[in-house]
Amino acid sequence: MIRHVFSLLVLVPFCIQSPGLSQVPQPAPIVPGVAEDDGGVPLHLRIPAKLIAKSIDRDFEHKGPVNQVLLGTTSLGTSHCKGQVTCVVEDNPAGVSILCTITGTVESKTCGTNGPARIRSTATTRYVATKLLTFDGNLFASNPASVSSCTQLKINGIASTLPRLAGRIVIRVATARAKESQSQVEAIIKSQTEEELCQRIDADFETRTADLNKQFASRLAILKYVPGANKPLRLRSRTDGVELAIGHRILQPLESKESLPPIGESVEIWFMSNENLIANRPMTATLFSKVPFWLSTYFSENPLFQKPDERKWEIELGEKWIVLKLHE
Description:
Blueprint: E1 4-9, E2 15-16, E3 24-25, E4 30-32, E5 43-48, H1 49-56, E6 60-70, E7 73-89, E8 97-114, E9 117-135, E10 140-142, E11 146-160, H2 164-220, E12 234-238, E13 241-246, E14 267-272, H3 277-280, E15 288-290, H4 293-301, E16 312-317, E17 321-326
Antiparallel strand pairs: 1-16, 2-3, 4-15, 5-13, 5-14, 6-7, 7-8, 8-9, 9-10, 9-11, 12-13, 14-17, 16-17
Helix pairs in contact: 1-2
């Protein structure tokens, strides 16, 4: 579908060359005339999954003290939680869904006190947690975490504060009781660990979601400049990224996953032209007009474009589309 590719620095003059035409210097950055209708300027914003992963996919880790009572035994020690976070953008034709998975372990080393008995143990909980992120066209939000896990308890040693025979009796009784209650203690630790994990993951993802919203804010800034952008947005997620659309004539590409090429690693802004670009382009250089006022205002006010020498736009032309790509 894409026939011609051009690269330029934002707000820097460039030349256009077409079959049958000589180079035509232009005084300012230009794009073909952008169509407008009742829905405003048809605009399609595509944000790659890579940008989402940048804010979400990092390790989850926490260390802290343990102070709990398990079947009458007071246990004190330390806990080390670690996990790997991955997020997958899901296919959703009517919204945006991002499933985040946290896989890891929680290891707690404690010393339990029950009368004269002292019980050293290690509890290892392997867990898989999930968080679902949604997007309303403005901000990302997350649902509460859900966790599934399994816990294994290892008794490292049992001692007594009593001397000689009394101490040996305490150890023998404590050992027997520890074996009898092990499955029950493992179930309690599993339940408590899952509850604490949900709380810590939810708190951790508040920061991750804030980072993601910050990343998206600069990309969504263009929407406040677009005529008709106050009208409802169409949203959709695909495995390679997130799409937003304004204007009814731009909605058709959202109906089918195959309607548009895969989203690459760049943020893409698709405009619908009021010209048949491929058919008319070889005929006249006047096909191109200067950037519309709203677009030039966006360029001049957005911090991303204050240093044009450091960022490049790539322009691709199809029959009815102008695609602006921002390379990260």
